[in-house]
Amino acid sequence: MERTVTVAIAEGLHARPAALFVAEAGKQPVPVTLSKEGAETVDAASILGVMTLGAAAGDQVVLATETDGVEAEAALDALAAFLERETI
Q1: Which of 13, 14, 53, 65 has the highest count of CB atoms within 10 angstroms of its CB?
Q2: Looking at the annotation, which residues are catalytic?
Q3: For the chain, which ranges sit under pLDDT 50?
Q4: Does the predicted TM-score (pTM) go above 0.70?
Q5: Half-sphere exposure of residue 75, counting CA atoms within 13 Å on the CB side?
Q6: With 0-12 CB in 10 A as exposed, 13-18 as middle and 19+ as buried, what is 22?
Q7: Which parts of the sequence belong to the HPr domain (predicted)?
């Protein structure tokens, strides 16, 4: 299961927004990965991975999980909503 999202956060996923995103990913009941075109897929709960992805405002990223079901959908919804916010 996956979801494509455009990063709306003005700073992108750098420093504070990345730390908050990773914290949100760590709360999810299923493991989630994050990727963008031209970069390797990273664990959404890894601050180092998310920072090295270098996702900027306006970039499209893909949230994915190998798990199916209600929990997986809720996890992707929560993380997509985080990325779609313009301010944190």
Answers
A1: 13
A2: 14
A3: none
A4: yes
A5: 26
A6: buried
A7: 1-88
